[in-house]
Specification:
The chain is α+β, with helices and mostly antiparallel strands and 276 residues long. 26% of the residues lie in helices and 20% in strands. It binds a DNA duplex (12 and 12 nucleotides) through loops.
DNA sequence: ACCTCCCTGGCC
DNA sequence: GGCCAGGGAGGT
């Protein structure tokens, strides 16, 4: 599932190839993939001829700066991936958008479920978009415990959906949220505002190690292989998960069975013994 | 602040 | 054949 580690792996894969390149040609095969820009049909003309000056990331968004102050945005949704391939290589199924670079490979946006999207923004459009309301990046800008405590203070919503709220902290998705709460020994249904100082510190301390472990192991590909690395391989982090997907399996800390519940329509896995 | 919806492949 | 997975926007 593309959450922060998978998106960061994608960014690292793209950056060396895209930096300094310029865009030759754009093909949008599924119009639905271009969303959240006022006139989606403008995407090709906004991209063609522009040079790439930076390949960044904020939360789950890949942000590609272009000449002329445009920014090209990629969001992988839940089944998207970016493949770099020479034009004569065969295409994967569900190659929905192709962006060819001058004298270089094609950037192929493959996404069976089309929850991912792409757009090109002017600075004004960016400022008016939901991207401008993203919280601090969970890896690069993680707030210290006191600031995190302030963000959670007075919140009656369960801590897990708060972790998934991209305005609080950007980049955490359903799998890694469960892993962080397991590591911090916090029950996912605890109201955000009920966490004491020590608990907020534990949670804060769990964020980066979980994301970095995901990154080290190439991210998490579930059994449906909806998510793959840019080169088509499966991420290896699945086998190291402590909570997510482990219903009825022994907790790796206390050996009691992991339980599954649904919180805000999302599968939630936790150890009822050691997460309180 | 909550629920519904979008979409498709894989599984039962 | 029907259900499930889920990020994020939109509606209530």
């Amino acid at each position: 599932m593309p959450e922060l580690p998978e998106v960061e792996a994608t960014r690292r894969h793209l950056a060396p190839v895209l930096m300094g390149a310029s865009i030759a040609r754009v093909e949008v095969r599924r119009a639905r993939m271009v969303r959240r820009q006022e006139r989606p049909a403008d995407l090709p003309e906004r991209l063609v001829g522009r040079a790439i000056t930076r390949v960044g990331r904020r939360g789950k968004f890949v942000l590609i700066d272009l000449s002329g102050d445009f920014v090209w945005i990629l969001h992988l949704g839940m089944s998207g991936r970016i493949a770099l391939a020479d034009p004569d290589e065969p295409e994967a199924a569900h190659t929905n958008v192709v962006v060819a670079l001058h004298g270089g490979p094609e950037v192929r946006f493959v996404d069976p479920r089309t929850f991912g999207f792409t757009a090109v923004y002017t600075p004004e459009e960016y400022a008016a978009s939901s991207l401008a309301r993203l919280g601090p990046d969970a890896l690069d800008e993680l707030p210290r415990a006191p600031a995190l405590a302030r963000a959670l203070a007075g919140r009656s919503a369960p801590i897990k959906p708060l972790l998934l709220d991209q305005r609080v902290v950007a980049g955490i998705g359903n799998i890694y949220a469960d892993e962080m709460l397991w590591r911090a020994r916090l029950h996912p249904a605890r109201p955000g505002g009920s966490l004491d100082r020590d608990e907020v510190s534990r949670l804060r301390a769990a964020v980066r190690p979980v994301l970095e472990a995901g990154l080290r192991h190439g991210g998490t590909s579930l059994d449906d292989l909806a998510y793959l690395l840019p080169d088509g391989r499966a991420g290896e982090y699945l086998s190291r998960l402590r909570a997510y997907g482990r219903e009825d399996l022994p907790c790796r800390r206390c050996r009691n069975p992991i339980r599954r519940t649904v919180l805000r329509q999302r599968s939630t896995f936790f150890c009822p013994e050691c997460q309180r």
